[in-house]
Write a structure and sequence with these properties.
The complex is a heterodimer of chains A (223) and B (207). Chain A has nine helices and no strands. Chain A has 223 residues and is mainly α. Chain B contains five helices and nine strands. In chain B, 27% of the residues lie in helices and 25% in strands.
């Protein structure tokens, strides 16, 4: 029991630290929101996205995924800049806890950014996405993004060019999430959800990568 | 036969096919002051990072209190002071230190900070951010957080670098106090005269 309390305390401390850093720098929110909104504005002004639910749905998830990997990379880079990560590695914390804390921090950041993107999307493209099924979809896909984004960054953390290599691995790995997101978004907008099984598949995919992250945590932090 | 406090047995470490440490063995008793000597690139920092578990070694064995270093709860016992600057750039000095005290499990991290904040004059720039600090002040953050008295084994990688005379005296006194309290200190340096305590080493590990 004492251990569980300690684990939660450490995770809370790392999340709090990341929030204090973000309040000062605002780098993560700016990189996620600006890129995503820019894509939506370009799409809104140059295409017939307003008339094609399928097209909108695909563009929405692609813009979200690209902007989120930028945000996750910024968030993870902060740990490695000036070797702050050594605070964590030399302290008596299990490496799994470090990974989980970073996943949860990224999850919270990208959810907040996603909510702002949805509000903006509602204003310029006029698609009503204030639907509990869509909010659930955003949460479970964002969780997958944060798990896969955190792991792919850490895998390349010691490699030169990690900012390029990490998205190169991230995008193919999140493709099943994007497929599920695009299919369900169309059905949610049309108020006719036929493929509830996608929710289960997305959650299973998230959990699979969470377990992978747990098992490879020692390899990830090896020099 | 009594077991050594820290026992390093035939460890090796290579980077990109180049052996930095080759079959190194030595033993340290509790309360010892141990000096690690060697030329630039001889592996002093690498050895300290291995002991701090920042690097894994390729061969050999390290035991702390008779238990394998990886298996023992060594991170609650070992403190590591890197020769690099280590901080989060978007946290001020006080927040950087409080965060570190928090994750090492100090339940009353604020009290620990308040009790020690005059050491190295940390309180004079506690609200500044790292990009507003000189190199010497950045180094002080590292020394301050790693020299709290809760540990038993201190690994110091050229801690004197970049410090002014007054701070060197404070650091010297701090290390003397730790030794008096039977703490074990392993240090590396190129500047033997910078701290008076450096001349009192009991053992030297030559790399």
């Amino acid at each position: 029991m004492k251990n569980i309390y300690k684990i939660f305390f450490i995770i809370k401390l790392i999340i709090f630290k990341d929030f204090v850093e973000e309040i000062k720098s605002k780098e993560i929110f700016i990189s996620i929101i600006s890129y995503s909104i820019l894509v939506l504005v370009v799409v809104a002004t140059t295409s017939n996205a307003k008339n094609s639910v399928e097209f909108f749905s695909t563009v929405f998830w692609i813009s979200i995924s690209f902007s989120i990997i930028l945000g996750i990379n910024k968030s993870m880079n902060k740990e490695f800049e000036n070797k702050g990560i050594e605070y964590l590695i030399t302290s008596p914390i299990d490496k799994e806890i470090i990974i989980f804390a970073k996943i949860f921090t990224n999850f919270i950041f990208i959810n907040i950014a996603s909510i702002l993107i949805i509000i903006f999307n509602n204003i310029i493209l006029n698609y009503d996405l204030y639907n509990p099924y869509f909010i659930l979809l955003i949460f479970i896909i964002n969780f997958g993004f944060s798990v896969i984004g955190t792991i792919t960054f850490l895998l390349f953390s010691k490699v030169r060019g990690k900012e390029i290599l990490s998205p190169l691995l991230f995008i193919p790995l999140v493709t099943p999430l994007l497929m599920g997101g695009a299919v369900l978004t169309v059905q949610i907008i049309n108020k006719d959800i036929q493929n509830f099984s996608w929710y289960g598949l997305i959650i299973a995919y998230d959990l699979l990568f969470l377990i992978i992250g747990f098992f490879i945590s020692n390899i990830i932090f090896q020099e | 036969m009594e077991k050594s406090y820290l026992s390093v047995n035939k460890i090796s470490k290579e980077f990109n096919g180049i052996k930095i440490i080759n079959n190194l063995s030595f033993e340290v008793e509790k309360g010892d002051l141990v000096k690690i000597s060697g030329k630039n690139g001889s592996g002093k920092s690498t050895l300290l990072k291995i002991l701090a578990q920042l690097y894994f070694y390729d061969q050999g064995e390290i035991k702390l209190n008779g238990t394998n270093l990886k298996a023992s709860n060594s991170k609650t016992i070992i403190s590591y002071c890197s020769s690099d600057f280590i901080f989060y750039k978007d946290l001020n000095v006080k927040s950087n230190i409080l965060f570190y005290f928090g994750i090492i499990g100090e339940s009353n991290n604020k009290k620990l900070y308040e009790d020690n904040k005059k050491f190295l004059g940390i309180n004079l720039f506690e609200n500044k951010y790292p990009n507003e600090l000189s190199n010497g002040q950045k180094k002080k953050i590292n020394i301050f957080r790693s020299l709290i008295p809760t540990y038993n084994l201190y690994l110091l990688d050229e801690p004197e670098l970049g410090l002014d005379l007054e701070s060197l005296n404070e650091l010297d006194n701090k290390l003397q106090t730790l030794l008096k309290n039977k703490k074990t200190i392993i240090f590396s340096t190129h500047n033997n005269d910078s701290l008076s305590i450096y001349s009192k080493y009991k053992k030297e590990v030559l790399l």
